[in-house]
Design a protein that fits this description.
The chain is of the alpha/beta class. Helices cover 53% and strands 8% of the residues.
């Protein structure tokens, strides 16, 4: 397991500093709830925190990466490190998985130090699982670190969430994220679009770029410019999207509209982000009401896409709205 990477990520500097300060005072929390959108490194931060608790170098300011405990962690073989996550094809984390974790945590530490338990994706805990876990949270055993990672919109019972120290991860400033993306990839160009579509989450931006989002952006800009100029047939474009995959294209469109609206109403918007996704000049300007209507239509499309509606017709309706907005 990789527990050293997280320390080099600038947007995790604050949570890591908090954990280091707590560790230095010998006051690591009993339970930690890491809340984050995808692509902010919640799992990596949990790995760092677990390694920080288990590292046997003294004094320990960070996981040393060299002691016996660190070597065991690297090999995924540390006997006092226990992880629970949703099993493949399962809908929820099973209550038996939670019970097994609790069993292990009440036993004596194998190496005589900390015991660490992690529940990854804790929103997949059902009520029974959360209840089983609650008792452990209420009566923590000494030198035990329990961690949960979850989305910020989690629906964990308040009884569970309120007993944990919460670390809410936030995306870094755009300039910080871009500098990090450029330096770690060696690619100076082309990060604006993936970062915008990732909602500012750097690791998600890396994934999106790998998945071809830069090419998608170029394709979308070309198509919509042609559509606005009247040189591309609307039915044809809808057909093309249906054949390729409408979902990422509609997601792109939603991001573009949102960015235009934010830039248009001012304040909350980031004009640089808006400009990075250039669209036909005719679509610019304060047509905010029409933009909102288009945004509603895009969201309706996403909602209806799961209900078996004819995608060709729905996309044509969407593109018709877009075209009338840009004329
Ligand atoms: Zn170590």
């Amino acid at each position: 397991m990789d527990y050293l990477t997280a320390a080099g990520w600038p947007w995790l500097a604050d949570p890591i500093a908090r954990l280091r300060a707590a560790g230095a005072a010998d006051r690591l929390p009993h339970s930690l709830l890491i809340l984050a959108a995808p692509g902010l490194g919640a799992a990596e931060l949990a790995a760092w925190a677990g390694a920080f608790a288990l590292c046997e170098a003294r004094p320990v300011a960070r996981p040393c990466g060299e002691c016996a405990a660190c070597a065991l962690l690297r090999a995924d073989a540390h006997p006092d490190w226990h992880v629970v996550r949703i099993e493949e094809d399962a809908q929820q984390i099973k209550v038996d998985q939670v019970r097994e974790l609790i069993e292990r945590l009440v036993q004596k530490s194998y190496r005589g130090g900390y015991k660490v338990g992690l529940i990854e994706g804790a929103e997949a805990l059902n009520a029974n699982g959360a209840n089983a876990f609650l008792k452990t949270l209420e009566e923590p055993t000494a030198r035990t670190l329990l961690m949960l990672t979850a989305a910020r919109s989690h629906r964990l019972p308040p009884t569970v969430a309120s007993r944990c120290l919460k670390l809410a991860l936030r995306p870094p400033e755009r300039a910080t994220a871009l500098a990090w993306l450029r330096s770690q990839s060696g690619e100076a160009q082309g990060w604006e679009v993936p970062l915008a579509l990732a909602g500012g989450a750097p690791l998600r931006a890396v994934e999106l770029r790998r998945a071809g989002v830069v090419e998608l952006d170029a394709e979308m800009r070309r198509s919509l410019a042609d559509l606005a100029a009247g040189t591309l047939d609307l039915t044809l474009l809808a057909e093309r999207w249906v054949r390729a995959d409408p979902a990422p294209r509609v997601a792109w469109l939603e991001n573009w509209i949102t960015t235009r609206i934010l830039a248009g109403v001012g304040g909350a918007g980031d004009s640089k982000t808006a400009e990075s996704v250039r669209l036909p000049a005719a679509a610019r300007g304060p047509k905010i009401t029409a933009m909102y209507a288009l945004l509603d239509a895009v969201r309706d499309f996403r909602r209806l896409a799961t209900t078996g509606v004819n995608p060709q017709l729905a996309l044509e309706a969407l593109l018709l709205r877009f075209r009338s907005l840009s004329s």
